[in-house]
Design the sequence.
């Protein structure tokens, strides 16, 4: 008895699986699988908001990469292990999100490369959040251009400071829209100073160039 090879009916479907997979992966990885191509793109985005930024700020200080996990390439984040090695963990990101992760988290490098030129203090109406108290809130102008907010807060047993750079694109907006974006970035719920505090002091608007 002759047995018809039914798998031939579906062979054209199976044959198309590989090209389809390549199409899907190329949409997720439009610049290929070399992370340096994505660092280049992220750097261009970063430089638009922080003109003094350098590519090394991302290339030498990132914990993101691209690796083959099983049969597929994945965006990964690296975590240090007890033995000093780095272990990759897959991250469910698209290309746009991956570029954003590469370009973010470099405030320390940005600050080190661009020292403070001058600053003004801003007073908060409410300087207390739980048992944490605001010690200082400054808006800073930097030597190579750009502005940042510098906040120090603490309680009886702990404390800390943070510098948050303000993207250059914010300064292209009208003052009211600038404040909207600024307070999304430096939210009153975490950093004490609110819109009324910023609007009350006329020196703030002038200092920021509006």
Sequence:
């Amino acid at each position: 008895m002759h047995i018809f090879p039914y798998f031939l009916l579906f062979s054209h479907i199976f044959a198309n699986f590989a090209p389809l997979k390549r199409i899907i992966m190329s949409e997720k990885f439009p610049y290929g699988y070399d992370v340096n191509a994505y660092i280049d793109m992220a750097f261009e985005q970063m430089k638009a908001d922080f003109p003094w930024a350098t590519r090394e700020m991302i290339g030498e200080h990132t914990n993101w990469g691209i690796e083959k996990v099983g049969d597929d390439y994945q965006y990964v984040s690296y975590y240090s292990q007890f033995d000093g090695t780095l272990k990759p963990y897959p991250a469910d990101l698209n290309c746009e999100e991956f570029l954003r992760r590469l370009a973010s988290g470099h405030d320390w490098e940005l600050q080190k490369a661009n020292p403070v030129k001058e600053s003004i203090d801003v007073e908060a109406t409410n300087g207390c959040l739980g048992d944490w108290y605001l010690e200082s809130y400054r808006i800073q102008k930097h030597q190579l251009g750009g502005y940042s907010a510098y906040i120090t807060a603490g309680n009886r047993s702990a404390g800390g400071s943070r510098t948050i750079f303000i993207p250059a694109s914010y300064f292209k907006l009208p003052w009211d829209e600038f404040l909207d974006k600024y307070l999304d970035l430096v939210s009153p719920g975490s950093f004490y100073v609110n819109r009324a505090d910023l609007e009350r002091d006329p020196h703030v608007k002038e200092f920021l160039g509006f």
